[in-house]
Amino acid sequence: MVFLQQLLNGLANGMGYVLIAVGLTLVFGVLRVVNFAHGEFFMLGAYVTYYGMTLIGMDYISALLVATLVVAGLGILANRFFFQPLKKEHEFTILLSSLGLALLLTHLAETIFGADPKYVDTPYSDATFSLGDITVTQQRIGVILVASAMIAATYWFIKHTRMGKMMQATAQNPEGAALSGINTKYVHAYTFALACALAALSGALVGPTAMLYPTVGDWAVLKGFIVVVMGGLGSVTGALLGGLILGVAESLGGGYISLGFKEAIGYAIIIVVLLLRPNGLFNPPASTK
Amino acid sequence: MKTHRRTWLNLAAGLIAASVSLGAWAQAKPPIKIAAINPLSGAGAFDGQLALEGMQAMAAIINANGGVLGGRMLELVTYDDKGNPEEGVSAAKRAMEQDKVDLIVGGWFSAVALGQKEVTRDKIIHIVTSAQHPKVTDEGHKYLFRLNATSTMMSDRYSKFVCDSIKPKSVAFITINDDYGRLEVENYTRLLGACKIEVKGNEFYNRTDADFTTALTKLRSLNADAIYVSAINTSQGATIYRQLRQSGHRGTIIASAGNMNPKLVELSGPALEGVYSISLFAPDSQRPMARKWIDQYAKMFKNEPSFIGSLGAQAVEVLAQAVEKAGDPRAYDKIAAALKVPKLNTLLGEATFDDKGQAQQSIYLIQVKNKKIVASGG
Amino acid sequence: MKPVPFFESAKAWWFGLLLALLAPFAAFNDYLLHMMVLWGIYSILALSLNIIVGFLGELTFGHAAFFGIGAYASALVVMGLGLPIWLGPLAAGLIAGAFGFAIGYVALRIVGPQFAILTLGFGAIIQTITNYWVDVTRGPMGISQIPPFKIEALGLDFSQASHMYFLVLACLTLAVYICRALQSSRTGRAYVAIRENPELAQSIGINTFKNKWLAFTVATTMAGVGGSLYGHYLRVITPDLMSLSYMSALIIMVIVGGKGTTLGPVIGAMVYIALLESLRAFGNLRLVIFAAMLILCVIFLPGGLISVWLRWQNRVREN
Description:
heterotrimer; A: mainly alpha; two-stranded antiparallel ribbon; 3% strand; globular; B: alpha/beta; Rossmann fold
């Protein structure tokens, strides 16, 4: 029974990670940008939801939707000012810009929202659902269901819509895509907005499972990186599998081995995967040079 | 012509203003500067803010009553130690050398206090408010004082209550993986075991953890009657209490000593109802200074007065008393002697500093009832 | 051969050293001296990071871990094994270097963002182990009361900023010398080739891997020694030394100062510390302002502050 409970814990956490990671991997794939600030959009999603509910009095679902849209908009601005001007620069100048953006957003949040922890009180966060000895909060069920739906939707979007195909083309061959008439600037902005929307959504969903404070983005982006590395840059299905594996490995490892293991397992996975299969666990191995 | 006259008028006005302010300045006595070094960013930022607010409220009261030493106002100089020893040391040095403060109150995190006290060693009066590590006073100096009780002091009183009143058949712990947490486990295992309460096990969590479901699932499987939660950080504590209830635990929850504050109550929601703890601060205390401080705090700040804040206030209060006795904010030997006088009268009750600078104070039992922290009989 | 810019010439360095030696006498109080000691230590750390980021052109997120390893190694060796205190920095350098040697061997075949994340993983694992191995490292409580360097016979106590400054300056001079030697040697030119065009470099016979490995090991050794200096001066260390906030600070120093140059990281460290302290009055806003300045610098001055000097120099030369 304990095993099943830990498994369920792991799945719930894992789906949260997947939602964070999908946006990150899309930005990797299409813009070739390592976005350190991705976790901050997760944080902002949670905060906008919080303030939507407490200041404006919206209900949870509305606040969540508003948060997703608002943060997507912020994402477009961020891309315009922090990444686009640097397109021609060295790879890690862009990374540094994203690091600066992350610091800026975290400390702005600290100043504006205050450093005190907040709790996003949704009608689902405390209510539990039990099956025998296994208990899970409705919020976490929500995370699993919504995340699954969003992943499926994103996957379908990329495979079957025009924008999705343009994103694929830009990801596979940026110069070729531009040459064949695709407005890559527009695709970039769109992708970035989508990524931030997903991050915000995950913030609004996962936020209520614990306390909210301005530095929560650091945690989120780290989990995101672990999953993206496992799944392979740019792969949505990879992110799905990677996130679930991470969530379950942490939960079972933490439950049966030690909590220290739980923290370290994610990093150990990064190391092993990058050394043995740098293209991700689910892609063909990189050709040796 | 017009410009000439205007220039003269301006000059005259300036001279008058200058002489008035000069006069006023000459009449006002120099303030007594107290450095307030707290974590104002990073982990512990909220707690640091509470401590600072507590100090500011007390300083306002003292200043409204005419200050100290015949009219000298208390001036708090704020510093952010970011919760890290390097910043704590820099802040202390800056306070002493650059800003030339007279007294220092600082050290929320033990690691910060440990580093800071070396900078203040035998140079300036340094009051540590809440750091609980024994080494702070064990390796202290003649001008170092600490207000909060060590966890050993708290566990003695608390365990008696658990044994005599709460009387669970078994208990399991969830504690933080550092000296404080380990000491808690050691102490309570011994003390509770002595009155025949079965200790079923312990889970450690880390200072940076945000999610506790894995640890709590393990803990639940031990099927203990009561779960003892040791959490200093408000955010982590609230998450643990909530997730503990969310995991289906219906038994007793015992909150660790000295960590109850209104923010924790607010964040934990229904999970904290009926939970006991002990603290140096009883929010419904009828002591006149305590009530004055609570009122002043409510006037100045949105947050509710908390134990952390009261420690900050107590620091300012005892400093003011000691300076008044010593006659000079820089007469450190005299101030230290004044502080070591038995039974200082403070808002938290009577406090006595021992040789090492450790305060011995009354400890009260408290409980959360209807989302308020109240003193419990017991 | 391009004429050597003034600030890279030996003359400039001797001049700089002279200024640095005289600086303490202009500092009025212990607080300023303390800042200067921190500047010195951070400069050493930034220089070590620059070897990887600037010379090799690879971004690493695990560098703070070697700084931490050095600090802990030095403290534990001296306090736990009771070895004489001057063996502390030696142990720190050796142990950090050994970690760098091992991790470098494994990691340096990867490049780009994957390398960055890989080093992030290594750094994080090292930090986690330090946090959890409480029996040895005291975990999150850290190690306190670390003995300071002392030369009793000469009455020198290196926990005093005024004394420590000169020790740090000596180490900094050594670090600068190593970096410049590395830069102007054949190995240094190999680094340029590896950085700009690895395939071409390899085709003309440069052993890319071995060169990178050497640089990485030197960098981590230097960071370890820096950690030892830090530990014995501040006398309290915690696993937070290995955290992302220290890592970000070091990256900022290198890039804002000017990566790839030797003066850049030193200037970067100075700017970082000076700004952080002078903005102290702004409280919480301090860090916001700092992040904004960083971003502006990154977008409008990708070559770092040093590039401003270069541009000015070129304009002077043209006149």
